[in-house]
Amino acid sequence: MCGIVGYLGTQEACDILVKGLQRLEYRGYDSAGIALMNGEALNIYKIKGKVSGLEELIQGKDISGGLGIGHTRWATHGGPSDVNAHPHYSSDGKLAMVHNGIIENYGSLKQELLNKGHEFESETDTEVFLHFIEQIQKDNNCELIEAVRIALTEVVGAYAIALISKDDPNQLIAARKGSPLVIGIGEDKKEFFIASDATPIIEYTKDVVYINDEEIALIKEGELTIIDVKNTPQTPYIHTLEMELEAIEKGGYEHFMMKEIMEQPKSVADCLRGRVIAEQSHVKLGGIHHHMEDLMNANRIVIIACGTSWHAGLVAEYIFEEVARIPVEVEYASEFRYRNPIIGKGDVVIAISQSGETADTLAAIEIAQKNGATVLGVCNVVGSSIARVSDEGAYTHAGPEIGVASTKAFTAQLTVLTTMALMVAKEKKMLSDVNLQKLLFELEQVPQKIEETLKLDEEIKVISALYKDATNFLYLGRGYNFPVALEGALKLKEISYIHAEGYPAAEMKHGPIALIDEEMPVVFIATKDSSYDKVVSNIQEVKARKGRVIAIVTKGDVLIPKMVDHVIEVPDVHEILMPMISVVPLQLLSYYIAVMRGCNVDQPRNLAKSVTVE
Ligand code: G6P
């Protein structure tokens, strides 16, 4: 949540910052702003709304300067407005700062500063944070970095900050705790970039340093120095980015979401590469090695995640229990962290996160680790916080996902989790060689079956047009398709703002059935699996009450098409793999409905892709 960028170098900073903010806009789009330092003036331009508004605002203004910082906001303290937009000035106008995170003790700090005569323009915790740094520098008559360091020992909460000073046009300071921050190092150290993730940097350099929690980076006179909050020098470790620029561009599609839906055959194949070779009955996740025994002998697996990742966790629960016979619990990270969870040695936590930065998931991991559990991370973003704090893990390798509604990350998460479950089942000898190999062959065919499913695009568009004005939707499924129903409903509400609920089909009788009338579209995920007959009965119950049914069925099904209003036929596959296929039409349905309703599918209102606040 909130994206920050910074630049110090030989080029003009403005363009680089604005482009960077466009790439980070998925993190929040309540306001956008930049601060530019040109040796004489420290200019701030900021505005409520999107980066495109900022681009208009700076037309004809003084945008010179080789040093600058920028911000795209997801509002926490203070509603979206021009004044609450970042960057903020210090009271003497000499410092400018951007911040991603929340300072929890900002109320008491603000009171202290008000007593000392500070005045505040905005309602944000960030302005308080900056004035606090300013006051410390004044009181201690010290260098800015020392004031930042002292301030960081006193603030409570999460932050990634970047700040610049009018007194020093060759200095950029950044720090983090709980919110991500990466520094790009240009050729010959002539320029440095900072950003919330690597996407604004990739165009300029592949050499990056990930800043750790409670570290402060000082970029000055062509050098990057890192200290921690206790003033201990740290050695920067330079990683080489593997991401390519094309991966973060729309590639001819109107929206990132559509591009990402269409990329799924490739992302699932990338995710399987080298991990599954059915011919040799090979199934292995290289990242899980030292803790394989823990996983095999786990008392239970506790899956922790949020949002779509939590839905992937629900599918994994069914798969692990079926093929590896290990009890599984699936927890919302935000609930887990605030209970007094019973967790400890012998438990294996699987933390699933596309971004690898979700604050609640990170906090839940910390609790699990403190209590002695082993934590395996399943993340998409390489080098992300969750990937780094996990004991071991496996990347989903789906490539950057930019549309706020998660699509290809979900199918890639399912791919990794299925692979993990089969790997454990193989090691524990829970499956016969024949059955294991059969499943691995089917898993290898999933990319091709997703490809086939994507061809239903036009058909789904026609159905979307019929239901685009609906005010409610119900999604029903059983077994492996129950989490798919939840995910289908989530996709629709996220991007089209239509109220939608996902339910286990049999539970419908305990409430949602009261909602059914001829106005109510009901999406059944009714593929041929062990609960097929039961789902058929549930469809009849809905039809008896005049509900309008859209059914996702297995190709060749002759029964359901006779009963329902619309069918979408997907290729047949083993039931444990079906969610990877059956979710695809639901992604397309929500996409088309949202587009037809004129919604901004890549940046739905109020949402952010990376939720770095709790
Ligand atoms: C946000 C995103 C969702 C995502 C969820 C969890 O709500 O909009 O798409 O599923 O966070 O994020 P994570 O990065 O941990 O998977």
Automatic annotation (TrEMBL):
EC numbers, comma separated: 2.6.1.16
Active-site feature positions: C2, K609
Reaction equations catalysed: D-fructose 6-phosphate + L-glutamine = D-glucosamine 6-phosphate + L-glutamate
Cellular compartment(s): Cytoplasm
Top EC class for this record: transferase
SUPFAM superfamilies given in the database record: N-terminal nucleophile aminohydrolases (Ntn hydrolases) (SSF56235), SIS domain (SSF53697)
Pfam families xrefs: GATase_6, SIS
KW Transmembrane (keyword) present: no
Tagged with keyword Ion transport: no
Domain SIS: residue ranges: 291-430, 463-604
Domain Glutamine amidotransferase type-2 stretches: 2-230
Entry keywords, A to Z: Aminotransferase, Cytoplasm, Glutamine amidotransferase, Repeat, Transferase
CDD domains: GFAT, SIS_GlmS_GlmD_1, SIS_GlmS_GlmD_2
Xref: HAMAP family: GlmS
NCBIfam families: glmS, PRK00331.1
Function summary: Catalyzes the first step in hexosamine metabolism, converting fructose-6P into glucosamine-6P using glutamine as a nitrogen source.
Quaternary structure and interacting proteins, as annotated: Homodimer.
Record-given protein name: Glutamine--fructose-6-phosphate aminotransferase [isomerizing]
Species this protein is from: Algivirga pacifica
Lineage summary: Bacteria, Pseudomonadati, Bacteroidota, Cytophagia, Cytophagales
